[in-house]
Amino acid sequence: MxxxxxxxxxxxxxxxxxxxxxxxxxxxxxAAICPVDAITMAADAEGFxxxxxxxxxxxxxxxxxxxxxxxxxxxxxxxxxxGHGVSLVLAAWNLxxxxxxxxxxxxxxTALAENILEKxxxxxxxxxxxxxxxxxxxxxxxxxxxxxxxxxxxxxEIPKEIYEEIEHLLxxxxxxxFSGTPCQIAGIRSFLRKPYERFYCxxxxxxxxxxxxxxxxxxxxxxxxxxxxxASCGFRDKTSGWKTPGMIHSSLDGRCEYTQQSxxxxxxxxxxxxxxxxxxxxxxxxxxxxDVTLADFWGxxxxxxEYDRDDAGTSLVLVNTPKGKEWLDECGAGLFLGSADxxxxxxxxxxxxxxxxRPPERSEFYGDLGTMAFKALIRKYRLxxxxxHQRLIKSLRQRLSKGIGQLIRSTRxxxxxx
Length: 418
Ligand SMILES: Cc1cc2nc3c(=O)[nH]c(=O)nc-3n(C[C@H](O)[C@H](O)[C@H](O)COP(=O)(O)OP(=O)(O)OC[C@H]3O[C@@H](n4cnc5c(N)ncnc54)[C@H](O)[C@@H]3O)c2cc1C
Prior knowledge:
Oligomer: single chain
Shape: globular
Bound molecules: flavin-adenine dinucleotide
Strand content: 15-25%
Helix content: 25-40%
Radius of gyration: 23 Å
Order of helices and strands: HHEEHHEHHEEHEHEHEEEHEHEHEHHHH
Strand order of the largest sheet: 5-4-6-7-11-12-3-13
């Protein structure tokens, strides 16, 4: 059964992406577009979803290939965001301090989403389900919006029913906001095939996504140490500030654990755990699929200290279309908006323009995830921040060797001058 599935996965990937099968971003557009439901999504050995063709149902119509956003981009086909380009760069945050504190960056997403809900529209974004799996869902009320708030550093699954529901809402004339990673925006734009006036897209600057298998194993390992299982999880808690976030777990019995030592978070930020396609992501650069792009405005204080006085979170907002500009203007009363420039944005946020570098041990890491106990994985890949005194010694050593280096260089210079 497994080998049959593998064969089918490769068959579709080969069909759509040729030699570059590993570029499949798992957006689900091919499964959603298939008119005979011949494609389902199945997890590979690392836990990433890939399309599986059921050859008994497939009529070889070629739509999956035609609407694969990666295939399209590679081959110069229509992307649905031709002509987009950054027209405005802003530093921003939500003026509601509570929302800003609960959001990963400055809470701009919530303002954009509230605007759509006020128009009677619907908002699609990533949320945890009751099994702590991250999936896209659609919300239509303010009360539900909190489910989408905050970055979840796990690849969000988009069930194909979400694509169908969005198309249905748009055909009814409702406003819809779709928010997600650039590959997901590319997928839904490709699936819809035509522009809808009331369709709003907000993409995120994205470093890449780990698999849900890794997250499941992490949660199982944590649960084994706790009296009561984890019920919810935050990846970017601001207890110690926006720039030094921690992970927070809340257990069913109401207890909370805050940590800046999370093995999961370290595997993520060290880029060990990303989907293979993320290391060659074709959605980088300033031609963005969203009407608006959101990110953390890292390094903003270097040029604009007034935009980061409280370490509470500053969003980078890129406006990519006239629709995006109108939308943001409508949200203006709830947001602080300050003008900034693209060079400062790129200088602090390489992920805007470059994919993450693939560490040499990336494949071994996922190989080990399949065979090793999580504790052994942590030890092998040093997924533990060193204790404070060790970090202090390391930093002193670095400074000392830098100082000695400078001393040697300046002595040499003086000798040459003599
Ligand atoms: C996997 C991932 C990697 C990121 N990498 C970077 C980076 O390298 N540099 C950077 O500046 N910013 C990155 N971001 C974006 C950043 O963390 C914030 O999400 C963004 O700035 C919006 O923040 P906010 O405060 O406006 O709203 P928030 O409320 O914090 O953001 C919520 C929005 O994020 C979406 N979202 C959350 N998790 C996911 C997910 N797994 N998949 C798809 N959409 C999701 C929700 O649908 C919602 O729209 C990343 C986000 C994610 C999810």
